[in-house]
Amino acid sequence: MEDYEVVTLPNGIRIAHRQIPHTQIAHCGIMLDIGSRDEQPHQQGLAHFWEHMAFKGTEKRKSYHIITRLETVGGELNAYTTKEKVCFHASVLGAHFEKATELLADITFHSVFPEKQIERERGVILEEMAMYYDSPEDAIQDDFDELVFPSHALGGNILGTTETVSSFTREDLQRFIAENYDTSRIVFASVSNLPFKQVVKIVEKYLRDVPTQQTSRKRQQPTGYVPKQTRVERPITQAQCALGRPAYGLTDPRRLPFFMLVNLLGGPGMNSRLNLNLREKYGLVYSIDASYTPYLDTGFLGIYFGTDPKKVDKANRLISQELRRLREQPLTTLQLHQTKEQLIGQLAMAEESNNSFMLMMAKSLLDIDRVEALGDINADINAITATQLQDLAQEAFQEDQFSSLTFVPEK
User: Fold this and answer.
1) What is the residue-level pLDDT of the chain in tens, covering all 411 positions?
2) Any residues with CB less than 8 A from the CB of 4 and at least 6 apart, and which?
3) Positive or negative, the Cα torsion across 227, 265, 304, 42?
4) CA distances from 370 to 13, 350, 362, 411 (A)
5) E runs forming strands in 107-207
6) What DSSP designation does 58 have?
7) Which sign does the torsion angle of CA 243, 249, 250, 255 carry?
8) What is the pairing mode between strands 229-234 and 288-294?
9) In whole angstroms, how far apart are CA 362 and each of 81, 178, 365?
10) CA–CA gap between residue 55 and residue 103 (Å, rounded)
11) Spatial distance between the Cα atoms of 352 and 374, rounded to a whole number of angstroms
12) pTM over 0.90
């Protein structure tokens, strides 16, 4: 893109910035290419535990001073963990950009993981896990990951298990970070009205002295997928259902057309084929969605819905009908045009969020070493043909390659 700039510090950390003159808010974050897929079985949940513990004390701050540092000037400090990333980020008035940068550097690189706080936060995370377990629409997504990626860290719950979370120590956190931490795989990203030179000067002040470190970590690609159908009784009243399979990775040339195909099938639009059929035509579901998540070396396709237990079979038949339609019937010229226009519009609206763009910029630099210009993406979308989409449907929507997980009420 022409409207973002990048510089690499001597230690390998990259600074990426997009200047937007009219905004008063500065969004910034430090993203590390470390996630739950980098955990060993006994470490499951450790990346997420680190995310929590980063707020609990540094070499010069206690927890209270961390969480109030930006709140007192109307800002926000937050963090999240995914299968492949840990991110600490903040939003403040532009005048407080340096304050946010210093705090992010402090919690990312100078956390001390106090023992008392570890015990306290262990309880918080166990409660978070219980909350998700009590929400079947959330729990089924975590359990379904395990079905699609069995015996692999991508299938593990990001939160971990009761056993692993109960066992974590300060040394476990330090060892995990040391094993996976690589300064060339860290990006500081920001979007604000500040000029790039000023941003670099401020960020350098807090990140240039971070010691250079590299890791020999090699991520293992999932192999040996075998479709599996599982039915589990739960203390619920509504059946929860998940269908899906492994899909294409981040660098696969089929990624964008497949994203468009899944968007047509069950994306966020009310006009998705699954929503029009299962909700609008038959009233079987409140919501149904299909999502595609690309990872470094593989991907994930999931379809999720909840319905009356007596209507599960009918819902599944209707989903099969939509998958078959996409395999057998190429899109008309009008349908293809509308599908492209919808995706182009959705991407443009997503880029309107400066915070979302900041996070996307960091992730893109870590994943593909560049930030794709919206105009280039739009050109790629417009180049997609109906034949391409039908070929992908015939390849990826073969139902004998789908796994399924269904939560049903206890008898």
Assistant:
1) 458 999 999 999 999 999 999 999 999 999 999 999 999 999 999 999 999 999 999 999 999 999 999 999 999 999 999 999 999 999 999 999 999 999 999 999 999 999 999 999 999 999 999 999 999 999 999 999 999 999 999 999 999 999 999 999 999 999 999 999 999 999 999 999 999 999 999 999 999 999 999 998 899 999 999 999 999 999 999 999 999 999 999 999 999 999 999 999 999 999 999 999 999 999 999 999 999 999 999 999 999 999 999 999 999 999 999 999 999 999 999 999 999 999 999 999 998 999 999 999 999 999 999 999 999 999 999 999 999 999 999 999 999 999 999 999 998
2) 16, 17, 18, 361, 371
3) positive
4) 15, 18, 9, 53
5) 186-192
6) B
7) negative
8) unpaired
9) 14, 22, 5
10) 10
11) 11
12) yes
Sequence-distant (6+) residues with CB within 8 A of 284 are 278, 307, 308, 311, 314, 315, 318
Q: Could you list the active site residues?
A: 51
Find, among 262, 227, 113, the residue nearest to 175 by Cα: 113
> Which residue's entry shows tokens 């009233």?
283
First to last CA, the chain: 57
- CA-based diameter of the chain, in Å? 65
Q: Which residues contact 255 (CB under 8 A, 6 or more apart)?
A: 248, 249, 294, 299
Scan for tokens 């206690």, then name that residue. Answer: 62
Q: Which of 288, 409, 269, 284 is nearest to 344 (CA)?
A: 269
- Is the separation of the CB atoms in 374 and 351 below 8 Å? yes
Tokens at 311, concatenated: 């209507």
Written as one letter, the residue type at 9 is L
